[in-house]
Amino acid sequence: MQRRTFLTGAALAGPSRAALAAGSKIGYQSLFCYPWDVLDEGPAAFARLVKETGVTHIALASTYHEGKVLAPHNPRRRVYFIEEGAIYLPPNPRYFGNTKMKPRVSRWTSGRDAWKEITEACAAQGVRSTAWTVSLHNSYLGWTYPQYTTMNAFGDRYVHALCPAHPAVVEYLRALAGNIASYSTEAVDFESFEFVGYKHYAFLEKEGIEITPLGNLLLSLCFCEGCLAAAKRLRVDGAKVREAVKRRLEIYFEQGDHDRSPVETRLSSVPGLSDYLQARFRSLEDSFRQVAEAVRAHKKKAIFMVMGDSFPNYTAGIDLGRIARHADAIEFLFYARPPEQAPAVMRNLRKAAGPAVRIYFVLRPGYPDAKDAAGLVKLAQASAQAGASGVSYYNFGLFERSHMDWIRQAAASI
Ligand SMILES: [Zn+2]
Fold first, then answer.
1. Between β-strands 149-151 and 157-162, what pairing exists: parallel, antiparallel or unpaired?
2. For ligand 1, a single-atom ion, which residues have Cβ within 5 Å?
3. Cα-to-centroid distance, 173 and ligand 1 (Å)
């Protein structure tokens, strides 16, 4: 059927079939996808479409946060509301039997193992899979188990943000990672494995005062029992820092603040803050190490996804060098940037992550980053030339179907 194919005669411009058959020099090229789009398409039909692009992997969401999605080519719907924080595989009691938090299971997996169906259909076409796993941004779990969410200096809980320093959260993520890694997936690709900040756009955010970088950082800090215990292990008095942060925020709320200078230059304005931030870097590293171990127990890989290229990221608690010790790859969202920026971004990432870890770039094959196939080819080539050892395309359900051919051309060009 015409609407189910993208490889039309007109679309065959660009790299030749011979080049495609010769295979790509980049060993990891992945297509992000949502399970509902794949199931609506039909796993077998989807797998054939993916194979035609020449990408090596799909990155299939295993769990995902809330959202409203415009689906321009989905055969069954055009607008889809995502089930908040659900997982897309049947949870195995072997992993979740003793966890304090229990997952919300998506209706897409009711009576079937959608994850298995999709990955097996792709494997039958020679396309491997990774599990795209949203980690700490989970409002379903946050509403259900507020005791494991970020608690700010005033004691308010953030339902969109599970705290990575809390042992119950690490236990849940280890169970989830182990369960996913028990499937025939090659890697678990962790998104939002960080201290999810105050500003997150999960809700209609209502603020009548200016949120400065320092204000955002201070509002993002967690002082839950897990964070205080992690700080104590490094001889940092978290309760004292909490009081200092609270005092600073009260002054900010009373007098306002218009200083938009980077947080690095303002850390000394709060006593004990620098030490507390160092403790958070260590604590995030420790949690990621434990979760990555659950993946490695199945001889699978752990990929760590990042959005910004400036490190350390104080608000998210990410010291990339520490994370890279436990990651098989760092995946960077190369969004809203021209191809010319790829070398500078790669230098920043390399400097922060160290020389050993692989670095992947994620590209958007369409609006607003690529105007045409040539634009995407340029982005892919710039990524490869900058030293990316993997390139991913985001995401099947969101761009126009014809752009699958752009991916074919980009994938064959690197
Ligand atoms: Zn915490």
1. antiparallel
2. 163, 165, 222, 224, 226-227
3. 15
